[in-house]
Amino acid sequence: MSKQTRTKKPDPQNSKPRILVLHGPNLNLLGAREPEIYGRNTLESIHRAMEAQGRAVGVQVESYQSNSEGELVDRVQSAASEGVQFIIINPAAYTHTSIALRDALAAVAIPFIEVHLSNIHSRESFRKHSYFSDIAVGVICGLGSEGYELALAAALARINPT
């Protein structure tokens, strides 16, 4: 799954609530890259599960992955004009480096949850700092791909409080 993943253009006839799931660099390698740290699920399988979870309650879940910081910033900026109501983001390595991506999230003011497959607090010292956590609605780390499902459940509760 790469930057051209399952991103759907807004349909004016479709008034479904929308959640955008953003995946940062190297997450396209999930399932093969260091499975002892990141698990064996692929990005495609994670997205399929999230899409089904959203569809079950009438919410459109879109996924976008890029290894490029600028493309992720552009995607966040366009989310505001597309009516995205919530963002789930795994900034991956950009967690520790990207002020630009943080600024984009702050600028659009779309609530978001930060997700990490591994427990970033039990790894190398440089991974313990996040530029996103203090402006996120919440942070989920260390639960593998289940973290995405939990983040989606929380996002659904916030945009569809029924």
Give descriptors for this structure.
alpha/beta, globular, Rossmann fold, about 35% helix, 5 helices, about 160 residues, five-stranded parallel sheet, disordered N terminus
Question: Can you describe what's shown?
Answer:
The chain has 5 helices and 5 strands, in the order E-H-H-E-H-E-H-E-E-H. The longest helix is centred in the last third of the chain and has 14 residues, at 146-159. Strands 2-1-3-4-5 form a 5-stranded parallel beta sheet, sandwiched between helices. Mean pLDDT is 87; it is low at 1-8. It is globular. Helix 3 (69-81) packs parallel to helix 4. It has 162 residues and is an alpha/beta fold. The chain has a single domain (18-159), classed as 3-Layer(aba) Sandwich (Rossmann fold), CATH 3.40.50.
CATH class: Alpha Beta
CATH superfamily: Dehydroquinase, class II
> How many domains in all?
1
Query: Helical stretch count?
Result: 5
Biggest beta sheet summary: 5 strands, parallel
Low-confidence stretches: 1-8
As an assembly, this protein is single chain
What would the average pLDDT be, to the nearest integer?
87
The CATH architecture: 3-Layer(aba) Sandwich
Q: What's the shape?
A: globular
SSE succession: EHHEHEHEEH
CATH fold assignment: Rossmann fold
Helix content range of the residues, please? 25-40%
Derived structural class: alpha/beta
Cα(first) to Cα(last) distance is 33 Å
The radius of gyration is 15 Å
- Sheet-strand content, in percent, reads 15-25%
User: Biggest sheet: strands side by side, in what order?
Assistant: 2-1-3-4-5
Instruction: Work out the number of β strands.
Output: 5
